[in-house]
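Write out the 3D structure for:
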Amino acid sequence: MYSMKHLGKIKTLDANAPAAMQAFWAFDKAAMADGAIPVKYKELMALAVAFTTQCPYCIEIHSGKARKAGATDPEIAEAVTIAAALRAGAAITHGAHAFVEE
């Protein structure tokens, strides 16, 4: 089911929900623009989120953008381990809910 060619279908969303999609694209552009946090770090954060949500589209898109912004293999590798640590941490902290308070 995953194929980058499917992203071409986003044009259908643009055509059928133009106001909402224009708002989305403007928000996305503003969020990812250089600001207090440089683009390279925003792209590394986007990658960490993509690894956590396991979105193959986001991983492919943001890994390319991160590299274009100057991210290195060691930086991307650390983003992977950050995502892994947070997913593991969530399992541990949510696991605490499995124990009944006495």
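The radius of gyration is 17 Å.
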